[in-house]
# Entry
Amino acid sequence: MAKIQSLSEAVAENIKDGDTVAFEGFTHLIPHAAAHETLRQGRKDLTVIRMTPDIIYDQMIGMGAVKKLVFSFAGNPGVGLLRRMRDAVENQWPRALEIEEHSHAAMANAYEAGAAGLPCAIFRGYRGAELVRVNPNIKFVNCPFTGEELAAVPAHRPDVAVIHAQKATKKGDVLIEGITGVQKEAVLSAKRSIVTVEEIVDDFDDVHPNATVLPCWTVTSVAKVPGGSHPSYTQGYYARDNASYLEWDKISADREVFMEWMREHVMNETPEIFAKRVAHLKVQG
Amino acid sequence: MTNFTSTEMMTVAAARALKNSDVCFVGIGAPSAACNLARLTHAPDITLIYESGTIGTAPDVLPLSIGDGELCDTAVTTVSVPEMFRYWLQGGRITVGFLGGAQLDKFGNINTTVVGDYDNPKVRLPGGGGAPEIAVSCGEIFITMKQSLRGFVDKLDFITSLGHGTGGTDRADKGVTTKGPSRLITDLAIWEPDPETKEFTVTSLHQGATREQVAETVGWKAKFAAELSETPLPTAEELEVLRDLHARTKAAHSGN
# Structure
C-alpha cells in the first residue's frame, strides 16, 4: 500500500547510494522536484536510466551523483546538447561517466519487459545500426517459429522508479494523463517507486474507466509536490516553461555558473519552491 | 512572386513530398515544419505522429520538443511510448519517416551519436532516439537537412541509423524489407537514390542554386541526373502559411 509522505521522507526511504534509479517522463511530467531532493540528500554512485535524459540528468551528472547512464536520447529538447553530460563524457568532469546507449524502441521494450516479468525484450530493431558494435547488451536471437533474426536487450529492473503525475487518491492510487510515456512500465518494472503529484483527492470517481491509473499497491511512496515537474509540464495544470529550457543552455555551458546556479536554485531550496515556479504558467479552466 | 529564403524553399519542397494519405513519423526541427506545412496546405488529412505517442496531431504552433502539450491536445489519440514503438512503428503502420541529422552520407546513413571516436568523442551528440528503428520500420524515409561540408560527409563517424548501407543491395542484404531513404530535400536541391547504386543523385535544383554550389557543399563527388529539373517555386499560399506558422510558433515559445 502506498505511503503518503513528504518528498524528503520518500527519497530518504527509497533511494540508496549505488541504486539503479529511473526518473522517467517523456518531455511531459518529468520529476524535477524528486531529482532535486535526491541531490540535496547527497545520493551518489547512482545508475540512472531514462529514455530522454534532459535537464535533471544533466544536473545530477554535473553534481557528480551519477556513475552510469542508460539512455537513448540525451538532449535539451528542442534546444541542443546536454552540456554537463558532454563535459562528463568528453572531459570526465566532475567524474567519468559510464554510458550504456540504446535506441528508444529498445528502452521502451526493456521497460515493458521489466513490467512483464521477462528477463529480456525482443523486438525488430537495430538492423544496420552501429550501437550494436559498442553496446554488448544488444544481442540477436532467431524467432523459433519463423527464423527471423530479432534484437534482444535485457529488461530494465530498476531499484526505484520515480515519476510525476497529476493526482493521487488518499489511498495512493495514481492517475497519469496526457503523454504518459513509459511511466507506467517504469513503475511496474521497479522494485520500489516514488510518485510526486499535483494534488491528492478523495477518489477517482470522475475519471474515465480506461484512464491510466496505477493502483496504490503498485506504488511505494506518494508525495504531494505542486509544480513538481517544472520546467517540464503537467497536462491540465501548467504549461511547459520553454524559456527555462533555453536558459539552461547558458547555465550549463560553464562549470562555475552551473555550480552557483545549483547551489542557489536546488541545494538551498525546498520542494515548496516548485509551486511558485509554475504560478505564471497555470492552465486556465 | 515574393522573395523567399533557401530554408523556406527547403521546407516547401520537403512538404510537397508528402501525400494526403500518408501516415508520417515526424522528427523535430526541419521535418516538423515541413510536415505541418503539408498538413496546412495540400495534405489536410495527413496523419502526423510524434514519438511521444501522439497520433494524428494537428498543432497550431510547431512544438519545441516532441512531447509538447499542444501535440497531445490536438491528437486523435495519445498512446504510451512502448505502444508507439511496438504497435505503430514496428507494426508497419507508418508510411513515411521524416528525419534530419547531424551527419549524412551519400547513401542516406545518418549519424546523430558522436563526432570522432565513440569511446573518446570529440563531440558527444544526443544519440539516436527513435531513429534506428524509424529508419528501418517506416515504408520509406525522407530526409531534410541544409547542405554543408560538416553535415554531408564522405564517411560517417558513426552509423546511428541505416540508410542504404554501403549501397546497392546492402540494405536488403541486412534483412531490411522497407524502402529506406527515397528523397533528400536540402536548401539547394532534391536528391533521389540511383536505382542501382542507391547513391543520392541530384534530380532537381532549386531556383538560384548552381551545380557548383551543390558540389561544393557535400563531402563526396556529387552526381547529377541526366535530366535535371528545376524545383517549382514556392507559391504565395505556401509561403504565407509557412510564415504564419513560424510567427505563431515564435510568439508562443517566447511568451511567458
Summary: Chain B has one domain: 6-251. Chain B is about 30% helix and 20% strand. The CA atoms of residues 114 and 124 of chain B lie 5 Å apart.
